[in-house]
Structure formats: structure tokens, C-alpha cells
Amino acid sequence: MSMVTHVHRLLPALVLAALCTTANAAGVDLQSLEKQLNDVGARIQRLQDLTEVEIVQHAYGYYVDKAQWRSLSDLFAENATLEIGGKGVFTGKARVFEYMTVGLGPIGPRNNSLIDHQQFQCLPTIHDDGVTAEARCIAFVMSSGGWGHVYYEDDYIKENGVWKFKKLHGPFNMYSGYKLGWVDQVTVNTFPEKFPPWPDLPPTIIYLTYPSYYIEPFHYPNPVTGKPMPAPSPRAGGEAFGR
Amino acid sequence: MSMVTHVHRLLPALVLAALCTTANAAGVDLQSLEKQLNDVGARIQRLQDLTEVEIVQHAYGYYVDKAQWRSLSDLFAENATLEIGGKGVFTGKARVFEYMTVGLGPIGPRNNSLIDHQQFQCLPTIHDDGVTAEARCIAFVMSSGGWGHVYYEDDYIKENGVWKFKKLHGPFNMYSGYKLGWVDQVTVNTFPEKFPPWPDLPPTIIYLTYPSYYIEPFHYPNPVTGKPMPAPSPRAGGEAFGR
Amino acid sequence: MSMVTHVHRLLPALVLAALCTTANAAGVDLQSLEKQLNDVGARIQRLQDLTEVEIVQHAYGYYVDKAQWRSLSDLFAENATLEIGGKGVFTGKARVFEYMTVGLGPIGPRNNSLIDHQQFQCLPTIHDDGVTAEARCIAFVMSSGGWGHVYYEDDYIKENGVWKFKKLHGPFNMYSGYKLGWVDQVTVNTFPEKFPPWPDLPPTIIYLTYPSYYIEPFHYPNPVTGKPMPAPSPRAGGEAFGR
Description:
The first copy, chain A, has 3 helices and 9 strands. Chain A is an alpha+beta fold.
């Protein structure tokens, strides 16, 4: 064989070697990049989910303000539950609508009525499945009836890409008339038979509001220690925990 | 041709084939990765924009609290408009400054004056163009004059990468003195000639506050159904919708 | 040499040339993609950090509400400081706990006590180092003692991936009893010797609350101009700035 032919025989081998190196290198990087992109996508999705869950809660507040009961009940999943104060549990979107229209009055604002439900301070959690979530939030209520302070511990579900209420649980921390001031004219809690409609299930917890007290259990762990919050323990005057 | 030469002839062909496969594979993946990266970048940008729009609104509240009228008017685009309560429309940044200094008093806090404008509950929307936005927010006002509850439906514009107010529209839901309580001593609304300065344009909407009512139209669709909110319909006592 | 052999000699060269082009092209794109991915990762991290810093602040509010002093002091870094109202500076997590338990009462809620500290309106900043942050926030206090309005300018530190308070600074804007109304029955400020425990360091600032005034300096620049907020200048009645 001539020298030239020998070189011919070597070149393709070198090429193949180079090619393999390149192909491998590119292959590995592409794989790693694709994984990184997926991770990044998941992190963005979680941030979007946090935003959207809060928006459902904020919209709820605006709809209460103006008695927009149809818009409000549309925020709930078909088989969602609602439990506000001590009235018991209402199951299903249709009963959420009934709770509002029968219990609180007809759709739409009216003269001499103010029912502002101001929403803020959420601690939202998107679960690992990406389609269920929880949030602890507050409503500061300023109404023609007086003052209110409500904790929410709500569950949300993502159906067809849309976050909805799965469970709204809004125990009162304080409710009071405004005339004598919110320390001297308190409502200790609602109860199932106080006004129609009647609930589907009894209250999940019996408690009194200020001047008694109740602590709605936190779904949210301590954000620094990561430890779950201590479970509530019953005590005279309400529910307490953390001792 | 010898067997060896024949192999020589085949190898480059194999190499080329392998190369093409690799190049194609890499090419397709890179293109897809680049597209994914762009999508990801756009999603992050939207989240950043949501954050920045809220910060403009939050900063506005802090500046009102302490009568920082220069800092406040700097939050507005050059040709922005401002319409608060029933005072009419002020056009341009300079008139925003005039509204504050002439209408509300000199720059800086003073004794016996409290004008806290607490901001929360935003429903922000970044439009597809990425440079215009809207938000519905609330101000809960606690002042030495009394109580207030204000809805905002504000427009924002991004100029040179910076979000600013394009339009601030803050109709009152309730305003009242604190002495007799916010149910018994209400201010039904401001009007253009109530105090100087005079507006550039008349109010865009005539309405009364609590004990009457008005619903500022929602730019934000129902977050679950995606349907636009029902348009307000005039009714005795104010504006109502949703029936 | 035969024509065939000549072609054999050329093919590998063509292959090599093609290969180099492909490898280069892929190499450049991969590098650029990797850089873009890192940028994107950093932007997401900042958004997550903003969320987490707010959650520490929100959790603080919930823990105050129910006198969860252990959970509350766990939100602080080991050598963090706390300065609330005019009581002076408490240094270290143990003294934060002491401030709460000795100064404000035992762990847990009790009858006739309401100490709601509602949190909102944050202006958070994550510093370039990614492990220190600041936020200006508000607490709107509604308690059995009366009303309060508190500005926070807090520092946070990220230790082992977890955001904590590094410094909590909460000067009062207004504090008042609710009986005569929050304009007529004000508390002008606390001071170190008012109630135990005694602070480690004197107050960093002497000021009076409403009907006097004080402006807590803004760490946050004007979000539109980017200019730092004007420094406070002392004036009769408190601190003022922006003139």
C-alpha cells in the first residue's frame, strides 16, 4: 500500500473518533440542558400557581363586597365545600350559591349595605402534585353591621389548568357591631340554626370568637424551621396551642 | 479494487451518515431548546412585570401617607391621567402634582394629620404587548378625617423598561368621619368644584358612595370561568351589575 | 491514482470540514443556551426569594396574633436584632423571645385579648449577593387595646437556603385606644423603661407618633426614577423629608 492510501485509511477513523466525541459531548450537554429547562419550567409553574391561587382568593373578596353571588359561586369546583363561621358545611357549588343568596341577600349591592371583605396576608402552598394547593389568608371585614376578622384555611384544585376553591374554611376570629366599638359589642359566633339555609353537615369545629378565642390550625409549617405548627389543644375559652 | 480500498470507500459514507444524523438530531434539539428558553423567558418576564406593577401601586400608598407629592407624581407617565373620587380628570404629571399640593396640602407630613392609604388585594393583568398593564386594587384609608375604602382600576405603561401609572382611577366606595362612626357620618362623594384645583375634564362617571353604592367595572375577568365580568347597569342608588 | 481513490481522499476532508462546522455551531449554541439558562435560573431565584421573604413577614403577623412566641422567635437568625416602637434594641434570638414573653405576656391566646397584626403592602428588595434582603411593609393593628399603624423596615438573611429576620425595625406611625376613637386617645410612643424587659441598646431613633409624626427612612428607591428616597430631615414635631 502506498503512503497515500494508508493515510486514506486513517482519516475516516480519526473522523469517526472526533465525531463520537462531539456527538457524545453534545448529547450529554443537550440532555443536561433539557433537564435544566424542565426544572426551570417547574419552578416557574409553581410561581404562576402561587399567583393564581391568590387571585382566586382576592376575586372572592371583591365579589363578596358587591354581592356578586353568581361570580362568587363560579370560583368553586363542582363538589367544593364552604364553611364560614359556625354555620356548618355546605357541599357543592349550588349550595354555595344558596348560602349566599338565601343567607346573605339577593345578588347585587343595595343602599345602606356595606360588606367589604378585604383580603391579604396569604401563606400559599402548592402541593407536589401541582394540582392541589392550600392557603392561609385573612379577611378584614368592614361592614354596615360592624367589624370582622376572619382567618381562612382554604384548599384549591386545578382542573383543566384552572385553579378553583375546593374547600373554603373561614372561621371568625372576631365579629362585632361598630356602634359600641368592636370590643364591647361582639358576636361570639354563628351556628347552624341561626338563619337559613341549613347546612349539609354540622360544623367541623365548635368554638367561640373574641372575647373567647380559637386558633384555626395552620397548614403552613414554620417557614424557618420547616416544622409543622403545633396542633391546637382544647382549653377553656377556646382552642390554644404552642405551649 | 482491493477489499481494503473498498472499506476505505465505505467508511466516509458511514461517517457522513452518522454525522448527518447527529447534526440533525442536535439541530432539532437546539432549536427546540432555544424555543423553550424563549417561552421560559417570557413567562418569567410576566411574573416580574406583575411584581413591578404591584410595587408601583404599593409605593403610591406610602407616598400618600407622608405627603411625598414629588415622589408620588414621579410615579406617573408624562401624559398620565388621575381621577380620584368625583373631582374629575387631571391630565399630565404636572397636574397630578398640582392636584396633590393644591388640593391636599404642602409636601411633607404635619402635626395632627394622618392620611394612611393602605394598599392590597391587587388583581393585576399584564397585556400581551408586555408594555401595558391594568390592576384592580384596594386602598383602606385611615386618616385624621376618618375612614375610607377606595377601589382602584389603574392602567400602567412600561417605558424604557420601567412601569409607571398611565391612568389612576380611584372611585370611593365609602368615606366617612370617624367621630360618629363610619356608618353615621358619611361623605357621599367629592365633586369638581368642591375644592381647588379644577380638573381638566369632567368626571368620567357620576356616582354616590355609601350609603348609596357604585361598582367600579372590573377589568379582570372571572379567574375561573374566564368570562368578562357583567357590565354595570345603572339602578337607583348607584350602579349595579351581575343580575 | 485512480479517480476513485482520489475521491476517497477527498471525502474524509469534506466530512471533517462538515464536522467542524457542525461541532462549532453546536458548541456556540450550547454555550449561549447554558448562559441563558443560568440567567433564567437567577431570575427565577430572585422571584422565589421575593416570595419567601414576604412569607416570613406574613408568618410573623400570624404568630403575633396568637402569641406564638416560640414560633415567632424561630423566625429570627441567631444574632438578629429587634426594635419595636421606642423600646430600644434587643439583640439575639433569645432576647426576642424574652421581649415577647416578658413584655407582652405568656405564650398562647387568652380571653379578652385581641392582638391582630395584619401584614401587607411590602416593597421587598433582594440584594445582589442573593443572601441578604430588605422589605418595607405595614402592620395594621387591631387589638383589644386599640388601633395601631406600624411601618417595618426589616432586614433578612438567607442561611442554608432559608430566609430569616436579620433585623426587625417596627416604628409606630400611630397607636391609640379605641374607646375615644383613634384620633383622641393616642399613645405617643413607647420608651425603654416603660415596661420590662430592658433593652440591650438604646433606641436608634427618638420620635413621637401621631399626632406628631415620624417618617421611617425608605430603603426602597422610587420605583420609577430609581433615585434613592430623600433622607429624612429633623423638623419640629418629628422627622420629615422630601421637601
